[in-house]
Structures are given as structure tokens and as C-alpha cells.
Amino acid sequence: MTAEATGEWHGWRAAAECALYGPDGFYRRAEGPAGHFRTSVHASPLFAGAVARLLCRVDEALGRPAPLGFVDMAAGRGELVTRVLAALPTEVAARTRAYAVEIADRPETLDHRIEWLPHPPKGITGLLFANEWLDNVPVDIAEVDSTGVPRKVLVRQDGTERLGEPLSGAQAEWLARWWPLGRAEAAGGVEGTPTGALAVEGTRAEIGLPRDEAWAAAVATLDRGLAVAVDYAHTATTRPPFGTLTGFREGRETSPVPDGSCDITAHVALDACALPGAHLLPQREALHALGITGARPPLELASTRPAEYVRALATAGEAAELTATGGLGDFGWLMQPVGIPNVLAE
Q1: What angle do CA 47, 337, 334 make, to 5 degrees?
Q2: pLDDT tens-digit readout, 262-280
Q3: What does the pLDDT look like over 73-128, one tens digit per residue?
Q4: Residue 226 CA to its chain's centroid (Å)
Q5: Measured between alpha carbons, how far is 43 from 321 in angstroms, rounded to an integer?
Q6: Exposed, middle or buried by CB within 10 Å (0-12, 13-18, 19+), for 244?
Q7: How many CB atoms lie within 10 A of CB 293?
């Protein structure tokens, strides 16, 4: 959408797609995502170290191939992939071919070993890692009207909303299966959906079909290995009744306005994205399995080796943030093995 199109109505998916990824979109801005919000990657180098250990486990499961692929989806300015390469053992790093997938221009100072691409490469043997990517795959929004009918929410560039047509087709089918709102007949009469339960007016859902498709396409680029999606997430038993659509600008949560001035994001129905053989777990459990515990150093270290104690205490604080209940530790990890066993199994 252009500035002249402010008064036009669009579905949230189309509006956010243009606002985030269009020629003047949010994700093409020079400061990058780190200028507006903080992810696990920015919180601590411990996160990249854990991803490096995960890549090593995948390497072992694959029989130490050459090359070993590492794909960083939605790479920002290459922070994660750069730190992962630095954290790898020398022998593994020598075999690793690294890819950063991002629509923005390649940073001038990026390590020459990292290939910068707009789409993930095909035929990879290794690890594809998508940290906070799926929450920025735009989706349409459904809202229940006064008669219990889920309708598509339309939006203008200034953020004004109104309800559009009732949902139908694939969107109605996805909603009925993964995030039911209203009566089945109101949602297009999807076979097998319970009928007669009228939803509360104003309840909302984010129709995650584009995310399911995007994730399936990303997984399909792997010949063998592991695909991991890490994101704000919910499952069928924890769907938020009024949705999660929001914006971020300069480190603060703000109203989602699709004019390119802010990030537009919504939590991910990771259970809907999961393909056969996948498993879901909270970030705290995944990081614990990869050696991040947040345990405080012994107090006696403070008197015997105080500098070491201070460093260990800082590391413990960073680990605690990455695994915190009510914070980053609640993020979901969707683990999708392709031709290998579960590398985080006990």
C-alpha cells in the first residue's frame, strides 16, 4: 500500500505483508530488527552457543557430512549465524556452510563465509533454525460478529478496522480445526466441527494457514537434518480468546498500524505448523538439554576468585533470562527431524 491508499481496506495479511516487506517496509530499514525489539539472540551469546551445540548434535546424527549446512531463517543482520560460526569447534566450523536468509541487504561487515540469500537454499544437509520468523509471516484475522459468525477483519493503513465477509474455504477449514470460533455452519459448515456453540462477540483468532505453508516449505528444503522454529507460541489448549496481534517500535509494544513504521507480529499456533514426526517443547527445556541451566556459581568462589565469580554470575543471569518462566523460557521450540532421530532425546 502507498500513502495514497490509506483509505483502502485490506485483509491484515495483505496489509502486513506490504508494511513489513514492501519496498519501504519495516524489515528493509537500516537499523534492523534489533533496533526495535530484543530476541534471545540479542539477550545473550549463550543462545548462539546452544544453537552451535545443537548443530554439533545434528552433525553427529548425520554422520559428520561435508558440507554441513546451517541455515539462519530471518537472519536480521546476521547476528545469530555469525555467533554460531564463532562458537563451533574448529573441525565442525571448517565443514560448515552457513546461510543467512533475509530480505534486507547484506551487511558490509558480514563474515565472508556466510552466504546471504532471500530464500532458503534447497538440498541442505544440516540444521535450519528459524528464531522468531513465523510470528512475522503475516496472517489474516477473524473476529466473531454479534450473531456468532466469524468474519475477516479488514484494516486501513492508519490501523482503522472493520469486519468484512464471513470466512469460507481453506481459511474457514483451518479455523474450525485449529482455533474454533462460533458455530460450524457460520464458519462455512466444516464437516466434523461441533455445532450449536455460539462464540462471544469480539473474540478473535489469527488464521495461521500461511505459517503452516511457510514452515512446510522451509522444512522441504532439507534433504536430511533438523528444522527448528522458535517463537511466541500457543497450542490448542491455550489459544488466547482475543488474539495476540500487536506492534513493536523502538523497544516498546505499540498498536499494530500497517504503515511500515512498526513491527507487526502475532504469536504462532505451533501445533498447527507441526508436520508428522515433530515435537514441541518450551525453550527452557530445550536450552536445559543443550547445557544452559542458569545455576548460580558457588558463593565461596566470590572470596577465592572474585573476577571469575562476577563473570559466572553474569552468565547465570543471562541464562536465567533465556529460560525464565513468563518470559523467553516460555517460547515454543518446534523440532522437525528429517531423516534423523530426536537429537534432544534424554
Answers
A1: 50
A2: 999 999 999 999 999 999 9
A3: 999 999 999 999 999 999 999 999 999 999 989 999 999 999 999 999 999 999 99
A4: 16
A5: 8
A6: middle
A7: 12
Q: Which three cell numbers stand for residue 337?
A: 527431524
Q: What is the DSSP string of 2-50?
A: -GGGTT--EEHHHHHHHHHHSTT-GGGSTT-GGGT---HHHH-HHHHHH
Question: Taking the model in full, what pTM does it have?
Answer: 0.88
- 288 backbone dihedrals φ, ψ, rounded to 5°: -60, -45
Cβ atoms within 10 Å of 63's Cβ, excluding its own: 9
For residues 135 and 153, the answer to whether their CB atoms sit within 8 Å is: no
3-state secondary structure of 153: strand
Q: How far is CA 261 from CA 116, 153, 162, in A?
A: 25, 21, 21
169-178 vs 209-219: helix axis angle to the nearest 10?
90
CB 258 within 8 A of CB 1: yes
Hey, is 130 helix, strand or coil?
Answer: strand
Q: Cα-flanking dihedrals φ and ψ of residue 163, to 5°? A: -85, 140
- What CA–CA distance (Å, rounded) separates 161 from 230? 30
Amino acid at 138: P
Contacts 24+ apart (CB under 8 A), 166-170: 167/142, 167/207, 170/209
| Averaged pLDDT score across all residues of the chain | 88
Determine the residue type at 61.
A
DSSP string, 80-101: HHHHHHHHS-HHHHHHEEEEEE
